[in-house]
Amino acid sequence: xxxxxxxxxxxxxxxxxxxxxxxxxxxxxxxxxxxxxxxxxxxxxxxxxxxxxxxxxxxxxxxxxxxxxxxxxxxxxxxxxxxxxxxxxxxxxxxxxxxxxxxxxxxxxxxxxxxxxxxxxxxxxxxxxxxxxxxxxxxxxxxxxxxxxxxxxxxxxxxxxxxxxxxxxxxxxxxxxxxxxxxxxxxxxxxxxxxxxxxxxxxxxxxxxxxxxxxxxxxxxxxxxxxxxxxxxxxxxxxxxxxxxxx
Length: 247
Fold this sequence. Notes:
- The chain is of the alpha+beta class.
- The protein has a single domain, classed as Jelly Rolls (Sandwich), CATH 2.60.120.
- It is built from four helices and twelve strands.
- It has helices at 14-21, 31-35, 39-43, 115-132; strands at residues 23-26, 65-75, 78-81, 137-147, 167-176, 178-180, 183-187, 193-196, 204-208, 212-216, 219-221, 227-236.
- Strand 7 (183-187) and strand 8 form a beta hairpin.
- The protein starts with 13 loop residues before the first helix and ends in an 11-residue tail after the last strand.
C-alpha cells in the first residue's frame, strides 16, 4: 500500500504554520506536550471506542459508522459540558446530512473525569483563539469509528467539505487492518491541495475552517474486518450551530 507521509510541523511553529497554510499537523510524539496531557492518560480513553452506538442517520443506508457526540463551552481554563443537544448543520455545509437534527449518544462520563480530555479541550480552544482572538469557544466533540462492516467505510460520506465553524481538530486514535483513509486538504478559494495518510495513533491535524476544505477517502479491509478511530473537535464562536427557528 502506497501512502504519503504527513507533513508534520515542529511544535515551536505550529501556530505560525496554521496561520500561513490554514492547516497544521503535529506528530504523535509532540501532540501530548502540545495539549499538556500525558500519553498514558490519553490511552486510558481508547477503550471507549469499543462501545460506540451505530450511526442511524446515514442516508446511504450504511452500517460502517459508529459515533458519540457531546458539546462544551471553553473559556480560558474553564470547561463546561452543556446539556445534551442534537448535532445540526445547514445543508450549505453538509448537503448529504444537513438540515436535520441528529441525536447521538453522549460521550461516556469517564471522559469528564479525565484530566487529559480537559487539557485537550483547553488546548484546542487555545488554537482557535490563536487564529481568531481569545473568546469563549463552543466545541462539539465527535467520537467516530469507521469500520469495514459493509466492505467499505466512508469517513466523510458528504465528500470534501467545510464544517461551518472556526477551527477543526482531527485526532487519529487507531487504525486496524485497513487500507485507504487518505486525508485531503484543499484551499477553499484556490487550486492548492495536500494529501497524506494519518497512520500513527495520536497524530493531530488542525484546520482553519474558513480557509480550507477537507475529506478522507474510503477505507477497505486488508484481510478481515478493520476500522479507523478518530476524535473530531469543532470550535465555533458566538454559539453552537442550531436550526434556524421558523418565522
